[in-house]
Amino acid sequence: MSPDRSQRARRARHQQARRLHRLLELMRKGRSLLVMTHDNPDPDSIASALVLQKLARERAGIRADIGYGGIVGRGENRSMLKSLSIELRKKSDIDFSDYDLFALVDTQPHTGNNSLPSHIRPDIVIDHHPLRRPTRSVRFHDVRRHYGATTTALTEYLFASRLKLDPALATALFYGIKSETQSLGREASSADKAVYTKLFLHMDAERLWRIEHSPLSPKYFAMMADAIHGTRVHGDVAIACLGEIAVPDMVAEFADLLMRLEHVAWAFCFGLYHGDLYLSLRTSDRAAEAGEIIQEIVGSEGKAGGHGMIAGGKIQRDRFAVSGCEKLQDLLRARLLGILRKSDLKGTPLIELEPRSPAAV
Ligand SMILES: [Mn+2]
To answer: Is residue 114 a contact partner of residue 37, using CB atoms and an 8 Å limit?
Structure first.
């Protein structure tokens, strides 16, 4: 390492140690901490919460639980909880008056994607999405927008604490970063790379493989078939209306799959879950601001946010005057294609599309 780089690394370690010190000081003033993930938590959010819980219990000596709203829907995520013995509390089972400290991870106040009651102001916010105004008044906030995963930031706290890293936790953290950054390929920073490499030595590869290859129900395949049939392609934009979905994460999962379609630079998916419309936007354009684009699509009718290449949102269905997937699809499709200034408004059904690279299967 060059003297310059080692000096920078030393400074970063120092700064991290100071942050940890401040965080623990705050925790020690309380008796019990509730860490809330974002709704329908993903591995990044779950893994981040695990670190705060561990620090609270083992370094601050206080009680700590993890809570979430929505559901843990995706097979991989359910399998992560089971095989790593992670305990999360459903919002409906939480008595918020049991706690005197509250934290949000991988989300921020007033984003509309977490279930911390609006009258409770969090004491701690650690995230990697763009900083929101209400977060600035949170006693302890650490928002690292350039990080690919919130888990990376939390793992730096864990390393600074010198707590022992067991294989189950290392696997959870590794998977948090892996799934969020698609194995460091998407929006990963040098910090993500450094932490990921360290975790690799401690994680349990076999358990991770079982999580990533968890059994899928026939319903899942039926949902995939419907989604494929519901996809239209407009030049380099693929848009899918998934209709009623069994789990909200399905929109993000299918959008990721559509990004694999040759010549596609944008994928936009939406589906209905318990009366709400869930949306997901993906792009391969590193300079794009998917988070801002999805906010424009959703407008004042819902809440949305994200990063450069990945974004999501939610709208209450009754905010729309139109009914039926067809009309809803027309409306949302027109909004996205308008923002991207695309001229092919009609598009072609995915299953009727001719392959454009003959060699590819
Ligand atoms: Mn995240």
So the answer is: yes
